[in-house]
């Protein structure tokens, strides 16, 4: 198979696994070691294929920006990113551009989120500068300013791999492990005198901060970490406040730490005590419904206009007519077409009760929207299910979480770990915003 065909396979790959497989096949054909992070892109760009050259022209502009100092700004840093969502992948790309050795772990083995994101103009321009239209020609054509999360992940994963980010799926980050080998502190500084990165083999001589992972014994368990970025959303597993040095791990496990006087505190959690570091913002009850329907991409479907956002306060007649005819009472609705027909709407509680979607009223929102209290068939009818396949979900958009701090620096045995959170781990954003 010629190199041009291998590149085309990479560009058109549309799943998490197929993107990785096609990239490694391309690297094998070009005699590139994907683990040689800093040299992946310089070697990859030697591929002389017309579409590849179009991509390299765009990526070169990023690669050569003065702010990255010829990839020396972060050259001696080992970066570990948790989560392959859009923010995790974009953070990994930025760290790779700075010259760091970047690894990223994702607990899933597929991209399955068809939720559609509306993109700000500066985000569109950033993605175009990273070759988004080469990987996805329909990206933001005409007046379209949105994209499905799954498609966005595919684009960013391809860019990340080009820049030498090492990606591992089906790996779960559990907690941080403190450095243990006090006798080898001096070797850390000797390593800094060399231009090479720390390798897995090096870590057996000098143990720094490491990650406890599932499955156990994963190769990255021996990876020394200088910078840890949490991008695993509301699940966020990164610790927050500084812990006693008597602890061997940083993480939050209620059972494991029940006997400690000082328990680890996460970057994100509902405030339960005066030591909490996350704000919970709660306002007027807003119940969100998302629905994805199969897009058969027929001519009739293509003619259906999208709804970029209609709110009750701006179009009361529209929503009153909807309520009179269907009994569906909404605050707003958005409709986008992508791989699916995607709807997101905020519904009023009384209409969900009247239509039998919510079985019983409850002042406790978690109980109100628990799966046991939702009639799924009624929910599908409420969302105007019109196909054999439909996925629907209900969320509480009233309570949003925001980290009180975005970065923390941890020190032990003269070794430092910079931790940061991005995306929903930093600030949870309502899908209806």
Automatic annotation (TrEMBL):
The keyword Oxidoreductase applies. It comes from the Eukaryota. Pfam families: FAD_binding_2, Rossman_Mical. Residues 79-112 form the FAD-dependent oxidoreductase 2 FAD-binding domain. GO terms for molecular function: oxidoreductase activity. Keywords: Cytoplasm, Flavoprotein, Oxidoreductase. GO terms for cellular component: cytoplasm. Residues 285-395 form the [F-actin]-monooxygenase MICAL1-3-like Rossman domain. InterPro entries: F-actin_Monoox_Mical, FAD-dep_OxRdtase_2_FAD-bd, FAD/NAD-bd_sf, Rossman_Mical. It is found in: Cytoplasm. This is FAD_binding_2 domain-containing protein. The lineage of its organism: Eukaryota, Metazoa, Ecdysozoa, Nematoda, Chromadorea.
């Amino acid at each position: 198979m010629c190199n041009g065909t291998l590149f085309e396979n990479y560009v058109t790959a549309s799943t998490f696994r197929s993107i990785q497989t096609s990239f490694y096949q391309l690297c094998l054909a070009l005699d590139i070691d994907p683990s040689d992070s800093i040299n992946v892109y310089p070697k990859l760009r030697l591929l002389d294929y017309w579409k590849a050259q179009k991509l390299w022209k765009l990526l070169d502009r990023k690669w050569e920006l003065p702010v990255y100092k010829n990839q020396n700004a972060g050259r001696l840093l080992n970066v570990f990113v948790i989560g392959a969502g859009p923010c995790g992948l974009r953070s990994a790309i930025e760290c790779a551009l700075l010259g760091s050795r970047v690894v990223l772990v994702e607990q899933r083995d597929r991209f399955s989120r068809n939720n559609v994101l509306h993109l700000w103009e500066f985000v569109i321009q950033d993605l175009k500068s990273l070759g988004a239209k080469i990987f996805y020609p329909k990206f933001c054509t005409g007046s379209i300013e949105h994209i499905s999360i799954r498609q966005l992940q595919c684009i960013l994963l391809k860019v990340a791999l080009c820049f030498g980010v090492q990606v591992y799926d089906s790996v779960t980050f559990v907690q941080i492990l403190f450095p243990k080998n006090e006798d080898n502190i001096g070797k850390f500084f000797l390593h800094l005198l060399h231009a090479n990165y720390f390798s897995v083999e090096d870590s057996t001589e000098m143990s720094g901060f490491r990650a406890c992972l599932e499955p156990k014994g994963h190769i990255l368990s021996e990876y020394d970490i200088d910078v840890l970025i949490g991008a695993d959303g509301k699940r966020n597993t990164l610790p927050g406040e500084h812990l006693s040095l008597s602890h061997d791990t940083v993480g939050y496990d209620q059972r494991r730490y029940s006997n400690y006087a000082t328990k680890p505190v996460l970057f994100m959690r509902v405030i339960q005590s005066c030591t909490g570091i996350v704000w919970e913002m709660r306002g007027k009850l807003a119940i969100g419904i998302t629905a994805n329907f199969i897009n058969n991409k027929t001519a009739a479907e293509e003619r259906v206009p999208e709804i970029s956002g209609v709110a009750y306060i701006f179009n009361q007649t529209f929503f009153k007519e909807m309520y009179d005819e269907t009994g569906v009472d909404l605050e707003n609705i958005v409709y986008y077409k992508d791989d699916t027909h995607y709807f997101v709407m905020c519904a009023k509680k009384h209409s969900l009760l009247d239509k039998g979607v919510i079985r019983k009223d409850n002042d406790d929102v978690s109980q109100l929207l628990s799966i046991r209290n939702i009639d799924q068939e009624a929910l599908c009818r409420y969302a105007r299910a019109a196909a054999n396949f439909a996925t629907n979900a209900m969320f509480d958009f009233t309570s949003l979480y925001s980290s009180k701090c975005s970065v923390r620096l941890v020190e032990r045995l003269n070794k430092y770990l910079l931790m940061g959170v991005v995306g929903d781990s930093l600030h949870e954003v309502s899908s209806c915003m």
